[in-house]
Write a structure and sequence with these properties.
431 residues, alpha+beta, OB fold (Dihydrolipoamide Acetyltransferase, E2P), single chain
Length: 431
């Protein structure tokens, strides 16, 4: 039995994962795996802050020989899952408690906050998840696909949250990362910058973590900017290491160890990326191989723009100002360079998430030749010809290769400018 929850937060407050945490804490004995945090299409204009939905699987049948698995703490007490059978009456309780939590903690009076909760006896088709990553889905269409004898739906507002809820249930975990999230409701007190740096250093000391510190800009990225119940979120590929990190943090800052949980996530997986499409569609995210066709230029606002040729068509490529030094690293690209580009597509442009420079073009510049007859310096007389002022001999121009620094390699924006779904290069081939 599955339950999905989405769209209970806004860009300024709350976090849908907090309701997932409360639900997991109250009904943990009926779970046999981590709760799930599933990020969806990052290109939609009406998304809430992180465009993430939550889902939880409960056991319809008791799991065999399942050892309790610790996944966090609730009010200072260990939180573990053990896979007990969830009866029909208990399923009713779970759904009703979910409604209670959405009503109590969901953001009110926000036009883009439209909570939706879905319960289903079976996992939805994976296509719902894939579509929720790549395009805008219609609320009515999704409702038709998930309604049935084994499903229940609760909505507020226009009910858009059922899209994310259903997609979170439909996720098949083909690539998985984890995030340990620590909470204090409604939001933590202001945290000293030295404390943030220390927590970030602890997290970064484990090689299995990622996207926690932005060394380039001196920022600790695991602390949210908004006033949400989240104290911090530590991302990694090994849940055991995340618990070790949390233990170290708790030993130094006990106040951060009262309420936390580990989610399975699709963060850092590139699940939103379609590789080498025949055609790019609005709001989709893609990896394309293309040949650079123009010199990168910075425009007003600091955005870097250049062009490439993909499947015989011109494509505009943009690196936005928040990507900082990433722009400097790719500003040296020149026509003829061959690159893999990852990014989101809209209005004829691909907004770059990362780049792999695969081949570097040889560049040549024209130089004024000397006369081969008398050795005098020739002068340009047009039509790509040069004339010797001494003897009148006509000669073609000479060319010499321009020395270029090696630029082959993989480049990505600093941590604070990365999208949740974008796979850091350090995880390539490891998921």
């Amino acid at each position: 039995m599955w339950i999905g929850i989405d769209d209970t937060d806004s860009r300024r407050e709350m976090c849908s994962t907090y309701i997932g945490f409360l639900m997991s804490g109250r009904f943990s004995e009926y779970m046999n795996s981590f709760p799930r945090l599933v990020r969806l299409n990052p290109n939609l204009p009406f998304k809430t802050r992180g465009n993430g939905a939550v889902s939880i699987e409960f056991c319809s049948h008791a799991a065999e020989n399942t050892e309790p698995l610790r996944i966090g703490k609730l009010d200072g007490k260990d939180l573990a899952i053990s896979g007990e059978r969830c009866s029909t009456s208990r399923q009713d309780d779970i759904f009703n408690v979910g409604i209670e939590y959405v009503k109590k903690y969901g953001v009110k009076n926000e036009v883009n906050t439209n909570p939706g909760m879905v319960m289903s006896g079976t996992q939805f088709e994976e296509e719902i998840y894939k579509e929720a990553l790549s395009r805008e889905m219609k609320i009515g269409d999704v409702r038709k696909r998930i309604e049935g004898p084994g499903s229940r739906i609760y909505t507020e507002g226009n009910g858009r949250g059922i899209i994310g809820s259903s997609a979170a249930i439909a996720w098949r975990k083909r690539k998985v990362t984890y995030e340990l999230i620590s909470y204090k409701y409604p939001h933590p007190d202001l945290i000293d910058d030295d404390v943030k740096r220390r927590v970030g250093d602890i997290a970064e000391s484990f090689g299995t973590t990622f996207n926690n510190i932005d060394r380039e800009n001196g920022a600790v990225s695991l602390f949210p900017r908004e006033r949400t119940p989240v104290i911090y979120g530590i991302r990694g590929t090994d849940p055991v290491d995340l618990l070790k990190i949390q233990s170290i943090i708790e030993s130094e800052y006990p106040e951060f160890g009262m309420n936390y949980i580990i989610f399975e996530t699709n963060q850092g997986t590139d699940d939103h990326i379609e590789f080498m499409p025949a055609r790019m569609l609005e709001a989709g995210s893609y990896m394309i191989q293309c040949t650079v066709s123009s010199v990168p230029r910075r425009e007003k606002g600091g955005h870097l723009k250049f062009h490439g040729i993909y499947r015989g068509e011109d494509i505009t490529l943009i690196a936005f100002e928040p990507s900082k030094k990433f722009r400097t690293r790719i500003e040296v690209l020149r026509p003829g360079d061959f690159i893999d580009v990852y990014g989101s597509y809209g209005k004829g442009s691909l907004k770059i998430e990362k780049i792999d420079v695969r081949a570097q073009a040889r560049l040549f510049q024209r130089v004024v030749p000397d006369c081969p007859v008398c050795g005098e310096r020739t002068k340009n007389c047009g039509n790509l010809l040069y004339k010797c002022p001494e003897c009148g001999h006509m000669v073609p121009p000479s060319y010499e290769e321009v020395k270029r620094e090696p630029i082959l390699g993989r480049y990505e924006p600093p941590v604070s400018a990365r999208r949740h779904l974008s796979m850091p290069w350090k995880l390539e081939g490891k998921l």
